[in-house]
Amino acid sequence: MSRALLIIVLFLLAILSVACGQQADSNEPNNEIGDATDLSSSQTVSASIYPARDGDFYKIYVDSPGILQAQLSNVPAEMKGRIDFYGRNYNWITRKDAENTGEGVVLTVDIGKAGWYYYGIGDLNGGSYGSDYSLAVYFEPVVDEEPNSVIGDATEVQLAQLVNAYIFPAGDGDFYKVFLNSSGIMNASLTNVPQAIVGSMKGRIDLYGKNYNWITRTDAENPGDDAILTVDIGNPGWYYFGVGDLNRGSYNSTYGFLVNFKPVVDEEPNNEISDATEIQKGSEIKGFIFPAGDGDFYKIYVDAPGSLQASLEGVPKSTKASMKGRIDFYGKNYNWITRMDAQKPGDDVLLKVDIATAGWYYFGIGDLNGGSYDAKYSFKVT
Asked: What architecture is domain 151-263?
């Protein structure tokens, strides 16, 4: 080869090298999602948008739920970057655009399931550039120990044992179940909820019965507050709780959930007149008004005409709601005859009745306030 020809060849190669600029992209070809470049968490890659309207695809495998964040930085001054995010079936999920040219872009996404996920990097200005951008992807696992996002998969919890769990991803809810072997007062508390300057959790506790039937709920008053649900349980069995966030957020720190239970067991199932508990004259009987709206029935056999005196004493008292007692009196045919009410909450009640004929007579004990109490009253007939 002559010296003149060699000079021409070298000159043409130099021109070609300048013209190609960043075409020597080590990640290419990746301008289709099926050819996406494989990335690892915390790995940074550099690549170019070239030629005009070029786009680059990347993929990452995550092996658990968590928070996936992509950071597009060092973008060319005229480039207005975009990050598109796709699921494992190449399905588009969301995107984030730069506000101005030359600015970086950060896209953060909750990942609910393990698998491959894909990113598309592009330029909203449709340009081409002789300098590289940088892309880094970071993954933070957020793993709930139990798959309990539906009531049928509710996690069994033990009384007085704290459970820690996540609300993750956004819109997640957790279900729990507990078996109660008697009537009593159940207390469920949602504490240590995730708090942030932007987007604290506003907790909710839902209560369901053994047939998954919704019963009641309580909500936190403010984001970041605890939520406490106290319920009278009238019958033993399975009970279910749903825990959720009214703000529909997602959090990488756990909340605490705790169920406590205080048994309140009446010795007799006597809340209907036909199941009235038999008592003897002069004997003191103790019972609960529980759950709310409960009433107790008693019966006594009178073998001769005379005067009966029934007393209701030691009724539950509190600063919030004391029992306001009532004694109803019925004849042998369950026919209502008369009654006596306490003058004010916490007072004793005394009912006096003249009996004209021998036979069975019945008493009903109730609370005019419709409350429930974990302390006993005393009842006696003389």
From this structure: Sandwich (2.60)
175-188, pLDDT tens digit by residue?
999 999 999 999 99
Rounded CA separation 287/377 (Å): 6
Q: What is the pLDDT of residues 63-95, one digit of tens each?
A: 999 999 999 999 999 999 999 999 999 999 999
Among the CATH numbers 3.40.920.10, 2.40.30.10, 2.60.120.380, 2.115.10.20, which is that of 21-141?
Answer: 2.60.120.380
Q: 292: closest CA among 207, 228, 230? A: 230
The span from the CA of 173 to the CA of 185, in Å, is 25
Cα distance between residue 264 and residue 376, in whole Å? 10
What values do phi and psi take at 140, rounded to 5?
Answer: -115, 110
Instruction: Give CA–CA dist 122/72, Å, rounded.
Output: 10
Same fold, 151-263 and 273-381: yes
d(CA 215, CA 232): 11
- Supply the CATH classification number for the domain 273-381: 2.60.120.380
192 near 232, Cβ under 8 Å?
no
Is the separation of the CB atoms in 337 and 330 below 8 Å? yes
Question: Strand pairing partners for 206?
Answer: 217, 242
Collapsing DSSP states into helix, strand and coil, what is residue 183? coil
- pTM, two decimal places: 0.76
Asked whether 76 and 124 are in contact (CB, 8 A), the reply is: no
Say which DSSP state 87 is in: -
Name the token pair of 275. Answer: 């199941």
Q: Which of 47, 55, 56 is nearest to 22 (CA)?
A: 47
Domain boundaries, the chain: 21-141, 151-263, 273-381
How many Å apart are CA 315 and CA 325, to the nearest integer?
A: 7
Structure tokens at 215: 């019963």
Radius of gyration, alpha carbons of the chain: 37
37-42: list long-range contacts, CB under 8 Å, 24+ apart: 39/135, 39/137, 41/137, 41/138, 41/139, 42/136, 42/137, 42/138
